[in-house]
Amino acid sequence: MKNEKKMDIEQANKIYFQSLANTRASANMMVISWAGAFGIAIFLLFQYFYLSKGYGINPFSNYFYDFILIYFIYLVIANLIPLTGSFIYKKQIQSTILLLISYTGIFLSLILLAYIILVYSGHNLREYNQRAEIVIPFLILCVIAGFVYHYFGLKQQLKAGFSKKRTIGNYFAKSSVYSRNSIYIIFACSMLGAILSGHLGMMLGISGSILFSYAFTQLLTEVGYLLYLKTKSKEYWEDEPEDNPTLLDLLWDWLKGFSLKKAKHRILLEILVFISFTIIAYNLGYSKPGIKYPFWLVWGVRILVYTIVLDLFISIVHSIIHKFSKKKQGKK
């Protein structure tokens, strides 16, 4: 009887982590790394303008700032890793490590946003430093407490066995991550924290720190344990999806669908031409102050700007008329 119960628990755990491998811990989840890059970009900009512009301090002389900048670059690149085709599914241990780094980066971005909310409401550099001395240990404590709690929680759950509800929850969690609401929440929290000051800002920062630490340390702990299971057995490797396009496939599909009749394609091309024209003019030395611009450069810029603005205006008007006519036909 005990052996049967033990086998049931082991089977339940196995099914849970197999579902985790194909959902929240899937290699294609690296495409959400842009959310972490977005959060880190906000932190880097805050640090740069607050220290450099406000107090003449070079943020690049700070090792932590440089580390965060490197992490930002990694998260941008990580968005493209799932577009390498079947390679990431053949190297699943390496891809899971990269996913773990991406998830850590997203978690780090949320903690840094909480740091901004808690610290940057100070009115001067001295107050900023005083708050930072308190906030940094608090955030570190939240993270450590989260990992310790979920480490012992995972050990207890492995003994009891994961429920079917938890297993099914993996699939719902993956689908919700791809919704736009995720980035809207991050953006709203960061902007709200920047606007608020005093007690409200502190409450938002503290509650956000605790919430992020609780949620993400659980995910990181489980993905870390899944990585351990993958090194032991290929039973925990995820299945490669049938539809797995590479970056070249997506670019080719986009080029096949490219048409100057489509406003979004046409306006994008016009903007690229304008940027190229500006770069050429800059490299020819026409950016120097006091220089007399030649006739072809002045009218070339004017024509490009007028073309983009006029095309954009006509496209918007055409879109509104088209939607209005559709609604009118629907009522009939």
Automatic annotation (TrEMBL):
Signal peptide: none annotated. This is Uncharacterized protein. It comes from the Bacteria. Keywords: Membrane, Transmembrane, Transmembrane helix. The chain crosses the membrane at residues 31-51, 63-85, 97-122, 134-154, 183-204, 210-228, 267-284, 296-321. It comes from Streptococcus lactarius.
